[in-house]
C-alpha cells in the first residue's frame, strides 16, 4: 500500500532509516527535494557505496513498485522501452492464412495490437500501478552510449514515448526516477541538468559503524568497530580499488561466520579476498602491511577508549 511522501528532510532521513538505509543529512536533503520537486535523482559515486540501494529502500519504504533498467553497452530502445512479439505475430498471420479469412488491412491492425507488445522497463514505468507511480531505477547509466542518453532526455522531459503503431503513451503520474553512475565515463551535461545531482561518497567511521549495526546486528560491537577502523585505514592507503560499504558488510558477515569476535593478522590475511577485489591490492596488503595497519587500528581504538 503506497504511503505519502515525506514532508521534511528529517522525515526523509527517518523514512530511509525505516528501510535500513543510514543516510546523512546531505543525502536526505537531495532525496527530499527530488521527491518534492518531481525531478530525477542522479547519484554518482564509486561502486558499492549504496547508490542502487537508495532506489530499493524508497520502493520498500514508500510501498511502490520498483522497476529496474540495468544499463549496458549496446542498450537500445527495443531492450529499454518496447518491442513486438514477432513469434506470436507470425503465428497470428499463419492462423489467418489457414482459416482462409485473410484481410490484409484488418490483419495489419490486429498483429500490432497491444497484446503483442512486450513492455520493457521504461514503458512499464509510465504505467501507474496500485494508484501510485513506481520507482524507476536506471542503473549504471555510464555503461550506455551517448545515443541512448539522447533518447533518455526525451523520455525524462515529457515522460512519454511514441509507439508508431499504437500512438503516444504518457504517464498519468511521472515515476520517481533514480539514475546511478559509477563514473566510468562522463555523462552528458544535458542529462545531468534535468536531474538533482548528488555524489555518494564513502561514509565516515561513525556512519559506517551504524550501517553495520543496522545491517549485521549479529556481529559484536567490538568486531564492528575494528572492521570499520581497518576499512577506513585501507581507504586512506595506496590501493587501486578501495572497498565500498558492500564489501565492508560482506567482510563482517564472513568474519561472523568464522566465529571471529576480534581481528587478528591471520584472519585478516585469510579473508582479504572478501574485502579487496584486485590481486595487486591483496598482494600489497597481506602479510606485514595488514599486520601493521591492524596494530595501528587496535592501538587507536585503545587510545580512544573503545576497547
Task: Record keyword descriptors for this entry.
Rossmann fold; five-stranded parallel β-sheet; 307 residues; two-stranded antiparallel ribbon; 51% helix; 15 helices; elongated; alpha/beta
What's the short version?
By secondary structure, the chain is α/β, with parallel strands linked by helices. The protein contains 15 helices and nine strands.
Strand order, main sheet: write it out: 2-5-8-1-9
* Low-confidence region ranges: none
Structural class: alpha/beta
Kindly identify the CATH topology of the largest domain: Rossmann fold
The largest sheet is:
5 strands, parallel
The string of secondary-structure elements, in order, is HHEHEHEHHEHEHEEEHEHHHHHH
Ends apart, CA distance between termini? 45 Å
In terms of DSSP E residues, the strand content is 5-15%
Domain unit count: 3
Mean pLDDT: 90
CATH level-four homologous superfamily name of the largest domain: P-loop containing nucleotide triphosphate hydrolases
What is the CATH top level name of the largest domain? Alpha Beta
The portion of residues assigned to helices is: 40-55%
Could you describe the 3D structure shown?
The protein starts with 8 loop residues before the first helix and ends with a helix. The longest helix is centred in the last third of the chain and has 16 residues, at 288-303. Helix content is 51%, strand content 12%. The protein has helices at residues 9-18, 25-37, 51-62, 77-80, 86-99, 104-110, 121-125, 146-158, 189-193, 205-215, 221-235, 245-257, 265-275, 279-285, 288-303; strands spanning 41-44, 66-70, 82-84, 117-119, 135-139, 160-163, 167-170, 176-181, 196-199. α11 (221-235) crosses α15 (288-303). The mean pLDDT is 90. The chain folds into three domains: 9-81 and 120-199, Rossmann fold (3-Layer(aba) Sandwich); 82-114, no CATH class; 205-303. The protein is built from 15 helices and nine strands. The chain is elongated and about 85 Å long. With 307 residues, the protein is of the alpha/beta class. Strands 2-5-8-1-9 form a five-stranded parallel sheet. Strands 3-4 form a two-stranded antiparallel sheet.
Amino acid at each position: 500500500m503506497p504511503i505519502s511522501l515525506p514532508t521534511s528532510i528529517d522525515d526523509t532521513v527517518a523514512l530511509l532509516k525505516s528501510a535500513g538505509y543510514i543516510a546523512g543529512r546531505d543525502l536526505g536533503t537531495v532525496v527530499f527535494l527530488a521527491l518534492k520537486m518531481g525531478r530525477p535523482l542522479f547519484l554518482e559515486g564509486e561502486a558499492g557505496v549504496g547508490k542502487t540501494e537508495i532506489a530499493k529502500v524508497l520502493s520498500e519504504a514508500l510501498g511502490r513498485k520498483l522497476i529496474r533498467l540495468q544499463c549496458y553497452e549496446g542498450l537500445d530502445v527495443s531492450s529499454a522501452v518496447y518491442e513486438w512479439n514477432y513469434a506470436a505475430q507470425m503465428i497470428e498471420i499463419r492462423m489467418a492464412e489457414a482459416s482462409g479469412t485473410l484481410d490484409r488491412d484488418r490483419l495489419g491492425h490486429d498483429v500490432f495490437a497491444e497484446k503483442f507488445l512486450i513492455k520493457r522497463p521504461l514503458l512499464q514505468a509510465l504505467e501507474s500501478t496500485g494508484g501510485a507511480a513506481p520507482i524507476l531505477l536506471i542503473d549504471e547509466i555510464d555503461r550506455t552510449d551517448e545515443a541512448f542518453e539522447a533518447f533518455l532526455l526525451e523520455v525524462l522531459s515529457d515522460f512519454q514515448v511514441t509507439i508508431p503503431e499504437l500512438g503516444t503513451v504518457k504517464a498519468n503520474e511521472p515515476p520517481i526516477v533514480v539514475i546511478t553512475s559509477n563514473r566510468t565515463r562522463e555523462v552528458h551535461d544535458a542529462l545531468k541538468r534535468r536531474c538533482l545531482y548528488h555524489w555518494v561518497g564513502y561514509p565516515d567511521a561513525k556512519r559506517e559503524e551504524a550501517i553495520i549495526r543496522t545491517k549485521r546486528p549479529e556481529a559484536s560491537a567490538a568486531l564492528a568497530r575494528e572492521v570499520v577502523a581497518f576499512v577506513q585505514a585501507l581507504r586512506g592507503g595506496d590501493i587501486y580499488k578501495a572497498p565500498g560499504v558492500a564489501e565492508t558488510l560482506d567482510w563482517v558477515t564472513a568474519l561472523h561466520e568464522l566465529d571471529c569476535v576480534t581481528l587478528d593478522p591471520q584472519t585478516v590475511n585469510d579473508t582479504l579476498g572478501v574485502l579487496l577485489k584486485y590481486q595487486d591490492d591483496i598482494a600489497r596488503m597481506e602479510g606485514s602491511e595488514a599486520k601493521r595497519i591492524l596494530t595501528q587500528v587496535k592501538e587507536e581504538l585503545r587510545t580512544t577508549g573503545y576497547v
